[in-house]
Amino acid sequence: MGLRLRLSGSVWAGIMTGQPRNIQTILAARLAVIQSISEANSETLRLNQIASGMMILDQKDAEDGADVAPGAAERAAVDAAFETCRARIETLEAALAELDRELKAATERKPE
Questions:
Q1: Contacts for 97-103 with beta carbons within 8 Å, 24 or more apart?
Q2: Which of 23, 83, 84, 97 is most buried per CB count within 10 Å?
């Protein structure tokens, strides 16, 4: 599942031109980033639940005397997806911090 930041063309306009954006546009971008952070957090929770289930199966295998725990490839895939998701969240949180700085600057600008 690929998580993407969904911003409308008008939201990206200020980013692409380097022109200061109005507060409404910044808030729309901020809302989109928060939505993406929420989606990424949900995915992290889902992956955490899968990993926890795998740990329970490992415990069961250990109790049953199994020498080799099956599912090593699946565990590695979940771990990799979890790390990718955590990196995505960090990137999104940095984007949110930047938007907060931009919003602060926009609210402090004098009207023209």
A1: 99/26, 99/29, 99/30, 99/33, 100/30, 102/21, 102/26, 103/23, 103/26, 103/27, 103/30
A2: 84
